[in-house]
Specification:
- The protein is of the alpha+beta class.
- It has a domain of about 70 residues.
- Helices cover about 30% and strands about 15% of the residues.
- It has a three-stranded antiparallel β-sheet.
- Helix 1 packs across helix 3.
- Bound molecules: zinc ion.
- Zinc ion (ZN) binds next to loops.
Length: about 100
């Protein structure tokens, strides 16, 4: 009786077994930053740090280049001893900017 090898050979196609193409760290952080902005009213820079995204500022810049409207302002969530910035997602690409959102 011949031995049938059921293990699939490594194809070397660059695609993982689950069909997901591995993303670069930059893309992963980009998506994570966007998700966090989407879920919260505002996201503090220290919150990004806590989520291991030290380059959040660069990712915010990338998102702005893509057409996202993101406001930066002094953090109002925490009582920092130093000046910290928080980010707010105001509008997505192709979406009219909501200028009437006065939350001051
Ligand atoms: Zn804060």
């Amino acid at each position: 009786m011949p031995t049938v090898i059921t293990a699939s050979p490594t194809s070397g196609s660059g695609i993982e077994e689950n069909g997901i193409v591995p993303k670069s760290e930059r893309d992963t952080q980009h998506d994570r930053v966007l998700q966090m902005l989407d879920e919260a009213e505002a996201v503090c820079s220290t919150t990004f740090l806590a989520e291991y995204i030290p380059r959040a500022g660069a990712r915010i810049w990338d998102l702005r280049q893509e057409g996202y409207v993101i406001e930066t302002r002094r953090c109002r969530q925490h009582k920092h001893r130093t000046r910290q910035i928080e980010y707010r997602l105001l509008a997505r690409p192709g979406q009219p900017r909501q200028t009437e959102m006065a939350l001051t």
